[in-house]
């Protein structure tokens, strides 16, 4: 299911690049996605934002633009990330300039997705971080730690 979400984000990026919403007469891509997938406009906007961060785009002259967050893209396509984690990473990235994120991830030589989660999410998205790290895997009905 997580891998399917990664493919869906790739499709959203292609729709954005082709300006499908404008050709179909919609005000924006989130409006089109919300109508066709029967989801809220906020969820559709979130998908478009996430796709901008993790999808490859090809310019009209054929140049493939680099992905803004290649580690996140790779982890997403491997099924290691769920939409909530991608959303939390997107919120963090929106607050930090692009050059700073790339420098942080490159210089830190982050070895795996869990370490990247610790670095990025723990201080800025504590509610999600606690859920991912502590609540997952515990038996139903057992007390939270």
Written description of the protein model:
The structure is a single chain. With 145 residues, this protein is mainly alpha-helical. The protein has nine helices and two strands; from the N terminus they run ααααββααααα. It has helices at 2-17, 20-23, 29-37, 41-54, 70-77, 83-95, 98-108, 113-124, 126-135, and strands spanning 57-58, 64-65. It has a two-stranded antiparallel ribbon. The longest helix is centred in the first third of the chain and has 16 residues, at 2-17.
What is the strand and helix layout of this fold?
Blueprint lengths: L1 H16 L2 H4 L5 H9 L3 H14 L2 E2 L5 E2 L4 H8 L5 H13 L2 H11 L4 H12 L1 H10 L10
Antiparallel strand pairs: 1-2
Helix pairs in contact: 1-4, 3-4, 6-8, 8-9
In short:
67% of the residues lie in helices and 3% in strands. It has 145 residues and is mostly helical.
Largest sheet: 2 strands, antiparallel
Name the helicity range. 55-70%
Radius of gyration: 17 Å
Please tally the β strands and state the result: 2
The string of secondary-structure elements, in order, is HHHHEEHHHHH
Tally of separate helices = 9
Q: Indicate the multimeric state.
A: single chain
Distance between the termini: 28 Å
Range of strand content: under 5%
Structural class given helices, strands, pairing?
A: mainly alpha
Shape: globular
* Mean of all residue-level pLDDT scores: 77
- Strand arrangement in the largest pleated sheet: 1-2
Give start-end ranges of low-pLDDT stretches.
none
């Amino acid at each position: 299911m997580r891998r399917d979400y990664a493919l869906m984000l790739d499709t959203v990026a292609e729709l954005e690049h082709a300006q499908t919403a404008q050709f179909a007469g919609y005000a924006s891509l989130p409006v089109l996605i919300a109508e066709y997938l029967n989801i809220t406009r906020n969820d559709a906007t979130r998908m478009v934002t996430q796709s901008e961060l993790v999808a490859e785009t090809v310019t009209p002259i054929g140049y493939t633009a680099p992905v803004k967050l290649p580690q996140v893209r790779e982890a997403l396509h491997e099924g290691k990330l769920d939409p909530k984690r991608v959303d939390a990473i997107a919120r963090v990235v929106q607050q930090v300039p692009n050059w700073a994120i790339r420098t942080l991830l490159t210089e830190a030589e982050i070895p795996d997705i869990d370490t990247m989660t610790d670095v990025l999410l723990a201080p800025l998205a504590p509610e999600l971080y606690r859920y991912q790290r502590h609540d997952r895997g515990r038996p139903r009905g057992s007390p939270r730690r």
